[in-house]
Amino acid sequence: MSSTIAVEDLRVGMYIHLDGGWLSHPFPLSSFRIATAEQIATIRGLGLARVRWAPEKSDPPPPAVGSAVNHAANDAVPDTAGAGATRAAAAAPVAGEREAAERAAAERRAALAAQREAQQRVEQQFGEAAQAWREAHDAVSARPQDAGRTTEALTRAMLDKMLAAEDIGIRLVAGQGDRTAAHALNVSVVSLLMGRALGLAPEEMLDLGVGALMHDVGKMEVAERFRHAEDRFSQAEMNAYRDHVAKGVLHGRRMTLAPGALDVIGQHHEHADGSGFPQKLSGDRMSTAARIVAIVNRFDNLCNPQTRTLALTPHEAVSMLFAQGRARYDATVLNTFIRMMGVYPAGSLVQLTDDRYAMVVGVNSSRPLKPRVLVHDPRVPRNEALIVDLETTPDLGIRRSLAAAKLPPAALEYLDPRPRVAYYFEPLVRARQPEELAA
Length: 439
Prior knowledge:
By secondary structure, this protein is of the alpha+beta class. 45% of the residues lie in helices and 11% in strands. Among the domains are: 3-57; 141-154 and 176-334, Hypothetical protein af1432 (Orthogonal Bundle), CATH 1.10.3210.10. It has helices spanning 37-44, 68-75, 82-138, 144-163, 179-197, 202-213, 235-254, 259-267, 288-303, 314-324, 331-341, 409-415, and strands at 3-6, 15-17, 31-33, 50-53, 168-173, 349-352, 357-364, 372-375, 387-389, 398-402, 422-427. Mean pLDDT is 86; it is low at 64-77 and 431-439.
C-alpha cells in the first residue's frame, strides 16, 4: 500500500512513484527505488511537494550498532570442555558445507530476483513509451500539432534516459499487444542507438527519433489491405501501398515536424543504389537519419512481417541484410548496424558450444559478440532459469543459430520464443551483473 511523503524527507532506499507520466521526469521509470542522493536532488528539482511511496517495497533502515545479533554473539558462553571442543571440530566441515550451500542458494535467489526486476523494469518502460506513442498517433488527424509536440517530448525523454548511461543493452521485451506501436518503438530504439554509435549531434538525434517514431504515419490514410507490401500485389496495389510515404510527409508537415524528421518520413524506403521509392534517391541525396531508418525498418519488417509464416529469426535477418544489402544500403551505416546488433541479435535461437540450446535475450551494444542468453536446462524450472552472460563465461560461446523448427520440442517449449520480436534499451551497470552468478 502506498502513501505520500514530503520530498524533503526522501532518502536512499525508498521505493517511490512519480505521478504525471513518463514524459514529466528524466527517470527510466515512474516507479523505482531511490539509489543515490543525486536522484533525490533531481526529484526535488521537479517542483513537487509530495510523492507517493511504498514502505513495503522500500529498503529497511540499516540495523543499529550493537543489535540483538551482536549482543547474542558477545554474550555467548564459550565451550571450554575438551569434549565440546572435539565435537565442534568434527562438526565444522559439515557446517561449513551447509553454510556454503545456503549461501549459494541465497545468491541464486538474489540473482533471480534481480533478473526479474530488471526485466520488469524494461517491460514497464517499453509499455509507458508505447502508451505515449499511441497518444501521439491517435492525435495526428484531429490535433496534429499536439501530436508533434508529444512525439518530440517522447523522443527527448528517450534520449535523456539513453544518453545518461555509458553502456546500453538491447533487451527482448513482450511487445505483442500493439504491433504498430511495437514496430515504431523497435525502429526508433535501434535507430537512436545507431545514431549514438555514429556520433550524431543532439539536434540530429532528435530529428532521427521523431522521424523514426512517425516514419509510417501515412499508413493511417491507407486502406488496411494496402498497409503491408505483398509479392502478389498488382502495380495498382503496390502504388496504393507506396502512397503512404507521401501521405506521411503531409501529416508530418501538419504536425510542424522539423525538416530532418520529414526527411526520415519521406526517405525511409529509399536505397543507396537508387532502387528505392518514391523518388529513387541515391545514397548521397539521402539524409544520414534516413539511411539509418531505412536499414532498421527493413530489419524489423523481416523479423515481424504481416504474415508470421514468412518471419525470419533476427540472426537470419541480419545475415540477409549483410548478403543482399551491401549495395542497397549505406556501407558505414550497415556495418554499424551489424556491429551494434551483433551476429546474434536478441530473439535469436542458438546452440551453445556445450550443446545446450538457448535464446538470446539481451545484447550489449558495445560488445555484441557476447550476448546474454536464456539456457535450456531441464534440471532447472523455466521460471527459475538464470540468464547467462557469455561475456563473463569465456569457456562458453555460441556454436550456431537455429530456426525454431530445428529445436527439440522440449527446448522450444522451455525457451518459449515470442511470436513477434520487440526490443527496448536498458542501461547496463557492469559493477552489478546478477546473471553472472549463473556461470
